[in-house]
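R.M. (postdoc): so does anyone remember the format we settled on? I'll just put the structure tokens first.
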């Protein structure tokens, strides 16, 4: 079985509802996954926007959420997750703080990637790593990956 990540709130490559953005409640969307390979020891979730600040002329990838050491037995995260699964650790997003920060694009329709990785190790406590630090720790340990893409453009 291929590892997959999805959301009941929006379709792959579909628009994200306003409630998950800075114009709404800015809460995390519900996420589900399946097909985690046997041999996986932990999961990593990275949510980012490669279209910042302007999709017509992107200059950087904006990090919205970093979670690591999610247990392989977890099947997803509920909407507006407040209590992470036991053992899950958080990294710093680009605000910089831990936790979910929803879409808030300054111009145009942006893509938001929710990337799930299955690792063959449980990572050490990296003390609120950045995305770069987390990716360095993951290097050579990725067994499978899946992604869900949502889009958003501000109404105002």
């Amino acid at each position: 079985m291929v590892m997959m990540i999805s959301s009941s709130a929006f379709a792959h490559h579909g628009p994200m509802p306003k409630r998950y953005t800075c114009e709404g409640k800015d809460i995390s969307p519900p996420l589900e996954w399946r097909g985690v390979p046997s041999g996986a020891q932990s999961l990593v979730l990275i949510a980012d926007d490669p279209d910042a600040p302007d999709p017509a002329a992107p200059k950087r990838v904006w990090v919205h959420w970093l979670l690591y050491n999610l247990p392989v037995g977890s099947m997803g995260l509920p909407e507006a997750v407040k209590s992470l699964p036991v053992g899950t650790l958080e990294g710093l997003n680009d605000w910089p703080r831990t936790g979910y920060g929803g879409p808030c694009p300054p111009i145009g329709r942006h893509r938001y990637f929710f990337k799930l990785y299955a690792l063959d190790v449980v990572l050490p406590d990296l003390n609120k790593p950045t995305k770069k630090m987390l990716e360095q720790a993951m290097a050579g340990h990725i067994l499978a990956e899946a992604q869900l893409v949502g889009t958003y453009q501000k109404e105002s």
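R.M.: ...and that's the designed sequence above, right after the tokens. Also worth knowing: The beta strands are 4-6, 14-15, 31-34, 42-52, 60-70, 76-77, 89-90, 110-119, 142-152. The chain has one helix and nine strands.
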